[in-house]
Amino acid sequence: MAEGTILSIDAMGGDAAPGVVVDGVAILLAERPDIAVLLHGDESVLALMVAAHPVLSGRCQLVHSDSVITSDMKPSQALRRGKGSSMWNAVEAVKNGEAGAAVSAGNTGALMAISMLILRKMEGVHRPAMTALWPTMRGRTVVLDVGANLEADAAQLVSFAIMGEAYARAALGIEKPSIGILNIGSEEMKGHDEVREAHEWLREAELDMDYRGFVEGNDISKGAVDVVVTDGFTGNVALKAGEGVARMLGNRMREAFTANIMTKLGAVFASGGLKQLRSQMDPSNVNGGVLLGLGGVSVKSHGGTDARGFAQACQLAADLAASHYQDEIIANLLRIREGGLAAD
Amino acid sequence: MAEGTILSIDAMGGDAAPGVVVDGVAILLAERPDIAVLLHGDESVLALMVAAHPVLSGRCQLVHSDSVITSDMKPSQALRRGKGSSMWNAVEAVKNGEAGAAVSAGNTGALMAISMLILRKMEGVHRPAMTALWPTMRGRTVVLDVGANLEADAAQLVSFAIMGEAYARAALGIEKPSIGILNIGSEEMKGHDEVREAHEWLREAELDMDYRGFVEGNDISKGAVDVVVTDGFTGNVALKAGEGVARMLGNRMREAFTANIMTKLGAVFASGGLKQLRSQMDPSNVNGGVLLGLGGVSVKSHGGTDARGFAQACQLAADLAASHYQDEIIANLLRIREGGLAAD
Fold this sequence. Notes:
Two copies of one chain form a homodimer. Chain A has about 350 residues and is α/β, with parallel strands linked by helices. The first copy, chain A, has helices spanning about 20-30, 45-50, 75-80, 85-95, 110-120, 155-170, 195-205, 215-220, 230-255, 260-270, 270-280, 305-320, 325-340; strands at about 5-10, 35-40, 60-65, 100-105, 130-135, 140-145, 180, 210-215, 225-230, 290, 295-300. In chain A, strands 3-2-1-4-11-10-5-6-9-7-8 form an eleven-stranded mixed β-sheet, with helices on both faces. In chain A, helix 3 (about 75-80) packs across helix 5 (about 110-120), helix 4 (about 85-95) runs parallel beside helix 5 and helix 6 (about 155-170) crosses helix 7. The longest helix of chain A is centred in the C-terminal third of the chain and has 26 residues, at about 230-255.
């Protein structure tokens, strides 16, 4: 194997696995000479696919596994029956120090459960949080939690802010990410107790973070801040509501441009711009959900991704593996605890 | 005044008042011979504007008011100092039985507070809820609450479902609207206690409503159900997150079509389709927020609306005034109470 970052990849997860995964790894390795991979899955199937890509030669080690976590398995089933599967082995290689990060496009709930079980929680973290990279007018914004927890008290919201800040620096390369807490706008009833309490903590804590206060739902797409902090219920609903609007407008755009001969002609002339816009409207282009707060890096790629998207998720995993984001999180959580904020 | 529905209109509220309001009323009355209006505001200004529209002659009664609720006034200030303003008088005319519904494009918080104070709550309603009409692939969906309450317990969610159902019938003309409760997708941790409890109630209560169970954020834009029920915090965030995505994609569309000479040429050919799409992307085209659960109809028009949008908000107000939605809500709330569901 080559020197540098080693990624542990579940080759059998995702709608078009293992073909898309192997193609994605080939794109990745062609662009990043510093990366090598462990590829977990059915060796007899993978060997031929890997052989078809010369770039993989010597930098892609196959690790055979007999079983696969299917997309319809519940997290509890995956925990009971998943041992020895390609997903399980991919995560276990991170635990054992054989790789710096795991990547899978398989069953989200199963990956979260298996990663929690094997990698355990990071020192000082009580509740890991799921992140999303939300496309904005100015780039991308980290939103968390988007579904790992149903509720969050003030201490958890503060820990999400700390985790999201370090993650934005590692994943988006922003030196000092700005942070906001999601709230609603009415002047005289600003937010739940938890939200207001977390706000006070972040304003007063000496964390050297760029905390900007409250933001509203429409501020996310504006890119008003780099990190938007919320509970998992609200974050999940907001993310999916936004995806739904993007899909609807994408459909409407297709309809609008096939309405008559003039609009069809217009679409031909404008096809470059249209193609770009459609891709920006496609939620599946935003790839790489990360469960933050674990004792190792485990990245979820979108199940319906293409090879390019899978390669992006791998790049994200490699950036995280090479960064100091875990140390930064541990240090800031310690500062907060010393300041007296109780976590449950 | 003509027979039929009488609307009580705040002529001084909104970014371009009173011009846009008077123009909107003219559009309304040209289309709806069954409607007449009371127009509240500065008589000296309004008299000339009204005289310029022959269609208003004999069907638009001016009611002078000396003061105006400004857009920066807090709800508490509006309550203390608002008496005698055009907004206050517009709502009071509904209370006094002079009109069937009030419409204002002015300060949202002030209109909510003044409407609550003057119109009081409907029999059996403990917490009024703010509605939005969300554009979907199939038409429009009622979402509530979008911000009148920060939290909602199970009994409140059930009352929102009852109010939203009657409202969808009156506002959208759907005979038997389908209803869903907003939740997140993870199989093994379906929602807060409140959400699950409300779900059980709506499944088991004998209400003759088409309750369909849980929906997720992306189901709203799909038009999966006609009424989406949630607490005011989650609903407000979802609505604004969706608006933000629509605005961002609208901006991206403009950029995409001005990228180069070919795309500009394409935009010229496709201008019909583009114009239609831009208007669908514009959140301000969805007009008419209604605070449900009051003892009278009070409709909020978007502050930045044009005359056509203001006329739409007035149509909605007239449809509500002519419907039996309040009686339907009172009857269903009574059934629920008899079934033993405690409201706070």
